[in-house]
């Protein structure tokens, strides 16, 4: 089972992906995480990426495609995978179709997490995550707060905010999402792959809705 998530920034794609990984053993492929790994390596290339990412801009289609191609070559994708953050525009959707047919793979479900801008902004500004295991929390939402303030429940590491989870960068990311990513809804609707999931409730409520459509 191969899945694509489409959602506004900070909608909780990462959290839903972790729940899917746990239940179905899928590989979680986040292009944002792949890019942040490059940034963390401290290379010149990573520094260039960081400049664009911290402003909330998309990085080049070719760069992301190469990272994704390498990731899809790994053994753990044979049980199925979740694409979190890819494709982000119609060009990437076309590139993905070509690459998947070369690799003899296909997408089974496209899940659109539907929510309004205010709620997405609220989630972005409250989002904190563990630098070690990547688990995501939210300091403003009761059900997503860590047990101990500022510490990961599992690793006990100090939780951190992403540099692009500020109001200015969120607004740029949201505009980019409206202009570039929302047109993908029609693209996948025409291919009969699109499922619209109401994402205004708790992560568990969203996950229950996801399970209903992918079974
Ligand atoms: P995310 O973790 O999905 O919110 O992505 C963080 C940032 O990484 C985005 O704001 C973009 O700068 C970059 N990024 C992630 N995925 C892509 C993609 N598919 N295409 C271009 N840029 C991306």
What would the average pLDDT be, to the nearest integer?
Answer: 94
Distance between the termini: 10 Å
Unique bound compounds: adenosine monophosphate
Strand order of the largest sheet: 2-3-1-4-7
Helix content: 40-55%
| Secondary structure tally: strands | 7
Give the topology string: H per helix, E per strand: EHEHHHEHEHEEHHEH
Instruction: Give the CA-based shape.
Output: globular
Percent in strands: 5-15%
Class of the domain at 2-116 and 196-214, according to the CATH hierarchy? Alpha Beta
Query: What is the assigned CATH homologous superfamily of the domain at 2-116 and 196-214?
Result: P-loop containing nucleotide triphosphate hydrolases
Major beta-sheet overview = 5 strands, parallel
The third-level CATH topology of the domain at 2-116 and 196-214 is: Rossmann fold
Uncertain residue segments:
none
Count of separate DSSP helical elements = 9
Please tell me how large the radius of gyration is.
17 Å
Q: What oligomeric state is this?
A: single chain
CATH architectural designation of the domain at 2-116 and 196-214: 3-Layer(aba) Sandwich
Counting helices, strands and paired strands, the structural category is: alpha/beta
């Amino acid at each position: 089972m191969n899945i694509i998530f489409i959602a506004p920034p900070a909608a909780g794609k990462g959290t839903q992906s972790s729940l899917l990984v746990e239940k179905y053993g899928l590989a979680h492929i986040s292009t944002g995480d792949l890019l942040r790994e490059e940034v963390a390596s401290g290379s010149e290339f990573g520094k260039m990426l960081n400049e664009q990412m911290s402003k909330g801009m998309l990085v080049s289609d070719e760069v992301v495609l190469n990272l994704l191609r390498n990731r899809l070559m790994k053994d753990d994708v044979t049980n199925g995978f979740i694409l979190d953050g890819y494709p982000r525009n119609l060009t990437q959707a076309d590139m993905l179709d070509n690459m998947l047919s070369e690799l003899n793979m296909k997408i089974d479900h496209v899940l659109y997490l539907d929510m309004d801008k205010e709620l997405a902004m609220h989630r972005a500004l409250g989002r904190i995550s563990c630098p070690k295991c990547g688990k995501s929390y939210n300091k403003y939402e009761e059900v997503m707060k860590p047990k101990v303030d500022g510490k990961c429940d599992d690793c006990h590491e100090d939780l951190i905010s992403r540099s692009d989870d500020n109001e200015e960068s969120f607004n740029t990311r949201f505009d980019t999402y409206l202009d570039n990513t929302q047109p993908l809804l029609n693209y996948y609707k025409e291919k009969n792959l699109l499922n619209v999931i109401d994402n205004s409730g708790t992560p568990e409520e969203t996950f229950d809705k996801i399970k209903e459509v992918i079974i």
